[in-house]
Amino acid sequence: MKQILKNVKDKLVSKYTKGSDTKNTKEILKTVKEHLVSKYTKNNNLKTIKKFNPRIKARIRKNKQIISKNIDNLFGWIKGAQIVELKKCNTNEDPVRPELDNKFRTSYGRKIYGVKYKGDIHAVMCFAFTNDIPKSVEELDMMSKDAFLQSIRRDYQVGKIAIAYTVWSKKRGGGKLIVKEVFKLIKKTHHLNRLITLSPLTEMARKFHLSNGAVQIQVNENTQNFEYKKV
């Protein structure tokens, strides 16, 4: 047995030190060790990569499916939603102007629109119709009354400008959807030619309208106005 091991050792030393002039046994053994380690660790790494690549690919595919499903859960409801006109809304849910009651929101040609999905309202937008751009709720009230009285002589086509003075959503994507759908409705009318907001002077309102395609047209003492020219 000792002779066999000696022969194996001699062959390995001869193989890995061929052409070398070194006579140091330690150096020879070190060289042999390095060659063997390099050879077998390389093979093992290739096997590991081959072994785990399918697992990694499978995990990536699964994660993509999960992400896609989550997106569908968040925004898939939009496909089945519809825009409806409401006779009233829950004003306590209004984060912008909860002090305005349903009588105000439906008098003098004013309207409430909602996004309806499976029997529930998930977003609300309230409008008044004027011939000028209001800078406050008081001006909105006065201008919409004036436009309504003028409309008596033209088949109750109230105002030339739709003023969105409040909007809120209870479901992800509802705010963007209601802006888009109401914009379509306004474009279909013959007497309304502009969609403008009467928004609170907050950064949240600014970011919401700008992100949905509006342009800021003026900043007032307590409010700001944005105009939707395209959505």
Which keywords apply here?
about 20% strand; about 230 residues; 2 domains; single chain; 6 helices; Aminopeptidase; eight-stranded mixed sheet; about 50% helix; 8 strands; alpha+beta
Summarize the structure.
The chain is α+β, with helices and mostly antiparallel strands and 231 residues long.
Describe the 3D structure.
This protein has 231 residues and is an alpha+beta fold. The chain folds into two domains: 2-74, no CATH class; 81-228, Aminopeptidase. The chain has six helices and eight strands, in the order ααβαββαβαββαββ. The protein has helices spanning 2-16, 25-75, 102-106, 137-151, 174-188, 203-211; strands at residues 82-86, 111-117, 120-130, 161-169, 194-197, 199-200, 215-219, 223-228. Strands 1, 2, 3, 4, 5, 6, 7 and 8 form an eight-stranded mixed β-sheet that branches. Strand 2 (111-117) and strand 3 form a beta hairpin. Mean pLDDT is 80; it is low at 69-74.
